[in-house]
Amino acid sequence: MSLIRICAFSKCLYRRSLFQRCIPPVTHVDYCRLCFGIRNGPVRHISVLVLGKIIDLFHTLFFLIVLEARIQQLQSDGILDIQHVNVHVLKAPKSGKGSGSGKSPKSTLREKGDIVKPKQTLTKGAAKSQSSKTQPSRWLQKLSQEKTNKIKREQVLQKKNVKEMPPTVKPQAGLMTPGRSYKTKSAQQAPDVQAQSQPSPELLAQAQENAEVEELEKRLSLVSDLTSSASTERLLGDREPAVCSDAQFGIRSYLEACVFSGDLERANRFLLSQHRILSRRKLLDVGMYNTVMRIWAKKGTLNQIGRIFILVEEAGLKPNLGSYCAALECMGRSDSCPRVVSRCLNHLEAEGLSLDNLFGQFVFRQDERDMVLKAVCSVRPEYQPASDYLTPDDRHPSLVQDLYLQREGHHYPKLDFTREELQERFGQQLEVEQGCTVTIDSVETVRPITVHIANMRTLLDELRSQWRKTLLAALKERKMILASTKSRDYKLNLYPYLCLLDDKEYVDIMIQSVSNLPLSGESLKVLARDLGNRVYTKCSIRQKGQDLMVEKLGSVYSGYTDLLAKDTEDCLALPREQWLKLEAANPSGPTLQGEELQWPYIVSVELGTYMVDLMVKNLKINSDILNPAYERKLIPILYHMYTFRSTRQVGFIKPHPLLTQIQQDATETRLTFDSYVMPMLCPPVPWISAKYGGYLLSPTKLMRSTDGATQHERLLERCRGLHPVLDSLNQLGSCAWRVNGPLLDIIVSVFNRRGSDKLGVPPPLSEAPRVPHFNANDPAFTSAEKAHMKKEVVKAKKKYSEMHSLRMDALYKLSIASHMRDKKFWFPHNMDFRGRTYPCPPHFNHLGSDVTRALLVFAEGKALGAKGLDWVKIHLVNLTGLRKRSSLEGRLEYANSLMEEILDSADNPLNGRKWWMDADEPWQALGCCMEIANAVRAPDPAQYISHFPVHQDGSCNGLQHYAALGRDVIGATSVNLMPCDVPQDVYSGVAQQVEEFRVRDAEKGLKIAQVLEGYISRKVVKQTVMTLVYGVTRYGGRLQIEKRLKEIEEFPKEYVWDASHYLVRQVFSGLKEMFTGTREIQDWLTDSARLISKSGRTVEWVTPLGLPIIQPYHRARNQVLKHDMQDINLQISHDDKERPDTVKQKNAFPPNFIHSLDSTHMMLTSLNCYSAGLTFVSVHDCFWTHAVTVDTMNKVCREQFVALHSQPILQELSNFLLLKYCGHTKQTQDTHLQTPIDTKTNTHLPLYPQINVQALIKNCSDS
């Protein structure tokens, strides 16, 4: 037997011993038959036999020293993996990642990743190992030289900041652990050892066994204290997370894909192949090993779990709760003997882990929890898992401390539904999400079905049927080729991702994408991403069904309806608290708030590109299908082309004109949407953590982010104070809606009657300008005329494409509204990284245009009361854009004077005097006119049940926050933060100040000032003033003003450029004079962000409600996805391994900080309105409620603004930045705020004058 095989068998013995320590050995009496069979299997007999051979071979200490030196060299040169009697040798990587020997002429092992077959002849370096026994001095000299070279290499690598290996324990002499690197004895130490007396083989074996036991105990005692209630599953899970997160992400998703598709062999083989290669082993964390362990646990194969325990130890990791959970689950399924279970539990607790944490925080699937509990109860019958769901948490921010701890007098609102109705709606929504798609009728006018239309529809159905068969055959063929392709096991490929669904489901997704493809085509990257995301969403829903989550979800939701239904008792629990209570009361089965694994962005794009390639190459049509005169040949219905966007070349997928013609002639009247873009038919699942909430089954992110960005999710996982934020999102999502049917009919009629640009209804494509046709080779045209014609062609095509996009967007919104006409529905909410909230359905929601806002009314109605009708009238005046500087009484009087116009608009909207069409928000104004007409015609207007939402909008909300932060009295007055006789309009004030500047310059003879006479208005400067506080530059402001000037038909177009330059300077100057503190605060925030980003870190802060925020702006890097169709260049700008983008970091900090304060104020208002029983909805700084509760909402809004800005916000921000980025707390003086990072250039802000913030309560809001 060769030396390398002897070493391998000795390694096998060591691993066997380690497995016995992980699953502790017992006496023969302690074992059941199954355990005894495993203990005394063939591998055990082989190991004992080999041990005897090893002891007989090495009789002298001289040979032991040679063997030890040789083993140490093999540890440096290769990694051994033993499968029974097969020996695989993998050459260690040559890079600095891990241990490796220098290049030796005697060592000719294969390149990294190559596997030496068991029967293959070994290379010369290994073949000469036996002959080297007679030359000990040469080996010792070689080892000494290798040691010196290794030390030099390590020193060089340390200088290059190479990541360090995990800490290891230095083993006893003779004990070498696979995958670890230890110091070898120098040549000077060898003679001393050789001079010692030679012990007997029996003593040697005993000493080695004792050394193994001692070393194993040391290794198992090195459990870190990092176990916490927040992240038990991640205990020692991620090794070098900042460096390997992307690669780890890909490996984990690949393993999960193999598991979900049932390919256990591939998953196990992939994990072993990753483990064998040292450079790849460093990417593995304990969670990846646990993924495979969970598979073996389902099969009840304890010995396989033991082998993975060995791999975990070899990788330098420690088993965590997930590892022991898999072992206990396996024991519960296989009815292991109680003594084995008891020893496993003792070992778990000896490492500082607890069963309560395992049951309380581990994410279980299917019946895993029941099996683990079964195993535990077999040795501890009285054990009952302790739940931490109901543990009271009084660690709330000071702003909401009383709101959570003092609930006497709270009146949480109920929904206007019975318990049975809510449960029925739950079943309907569950069916929709399990179907993944929803097909609805289009609102476009149905033309009479002619013979031609009928033929085209029949033809299109036949083609789709044929394409399905073609794609199905092509997909199966490609999968067979991909499965049989010989590739190294450690390489990732798409095969597992193509086995997650039935082949027909992949084909349906591709056919749907062909039907939804725009006429102008779509970017390959965008189309591929959408296809990959659709597959991921379907897989996520299927996995929840496979994990038995649907049954438990139904049980918990049934109890949750008791809190919401109107026919149940009142409860002072919030939706989040009630859901947690119900889930804790139903612990059996899977964990609902599971950790949903995301796919890496590049995987979604690669899978989608694979599917696009399949469509382009296989979907074909006869060229003479519409015109028999053409020559018949098969042509693709999709073709791949390139186009330029700016200076970048972009791959495009465009439909063939024949396909476009057939689809247009067929005039299909059905639209298909993904289920997650539709409103929900039942109240959403409350957000109870950063990972669970929103839709029933469809994956939903709490925080929106760029595709592939994960820093926000990691930040939220570490945050323990998200309860106010989650409760606010739950409140916004609890509002039920319905469609304003009469108004929908009017809008649809305008939509089908050529639309109206004035009313915001896009016209059909028949109204688009015709694309001019000309022959570029015609000599009759001059070069200038040809250039002009080309520009006209480009302009016409651009206009056509824009009109098509707008038309389809309106079609989607109106069709969804028509589909939901007779239903009541809900919008689940999430937020962006600044905390600004958004409804999840993208097409139809209350954050949309004037059309969609007008179509939405509250499902629950409330009587108008004494002042409700007055508020509806005031709201109408606000929608017209008139009387901005009038008091509330003045606006009400103006509305009463317009009653004749209001009633005419309500009764004859399209055939009357059409007064409503001149409003700033015409469709909302029309809806308001109809509501007023219904109320005044009711027998008692005060008792009229109104579903109409009344809006209360902020007066340039960003400037309000800046004025309050700076205690700027003048600025606060201009944005209605101070009591005034009449509401102030900051936009009109700026326009008036700019007009004063213009008059002064015109008197001095400035030409452009003279041209602008009579053209400076509130509308011209409004957008620039509004966006100035959000970081708009002079260039951006000039473009905004230029656009407004172009809309004025009388303004001379030749002066637009000069006029916009002049006005943007005056607007900036006017705002600087009106808001003295705003620019200084902006400068301080900008300087802070600049210094932080230049130090190599991103800007972070925490809102007053405890929401952590990080700016995801990093230097972009290019990642190329290579594919046969096209190499796709992915620009990654959110990679937190890259240096921060200083320009974006500093420019975005001021507006993002103000956005976070704005969202905090909204959330405070939301929570307090919910506790008062109000219906509350927000569109950022615009708050909606019933007319009868407007006064209450206004009071809450003012009180919460005062409470927010009574906090030392800038002081706390400065302290946070100093603590985080300077590493110490630097006390700020009363008169200065200090910029972090650079103490030599601290920017000091003056002490702002204090204003009486309590006076804000008395002020009338600008409604």
TrEMBL record:
Biased composition range(s): Basic and acidic residues: 108-117, 144-163
PPR repeats: 285-319
Keywords: DNA-directed RNA polymerase, Nucleotidyltransferase, Transcription, Transferase
Listed InterPro entries: DNA-dir_Rpol_C_phage-type, DNA-dir_Rpol_phage-type, DNA/RNA_pol_sf, PPR_rpt, RNA_POL_N_sf, RPOL_N, TPR-like_helical_dom_sf
Ranges where the DNA-directed RNA polymerase N-terminal domain occurs: 427-734
Region span, Disordered: 93-200
Compositionally biased intervals (Polar residues): 120-138, 184-200
Pfam families: RNA_pol, RPOL_N
Domain of life, per lineage: Eukaryota
GO process annotations (BP): mitochondrial transcription
SUPFAM superfamilies (UniProt xref): DNA/RNA polymerases
EC number: 2.7.7.6
Catalytic reaction list: RNA(n) + a ribonucleoside 5'-triphosphate = RNA(n+1) + diphosphate
One Gene Ontology cellular component: mitochondrial DNA-directed RNA polymerase complex
Molecular function as annotated in GO: DNA-directed RNA polymerase activity; mitochondrial promoter sequence-specific DNA binding
Protein family per UniProt: Belongs to the phage and mitochondrial RNA polymerase family.
Function: DNA-dependent RNA polymerase catalyzes the transcription of DNA into RNA using the four ribonucleoside triphosphates as substrates.
Protein name, as recorded: DNA-directed RNA polymerase
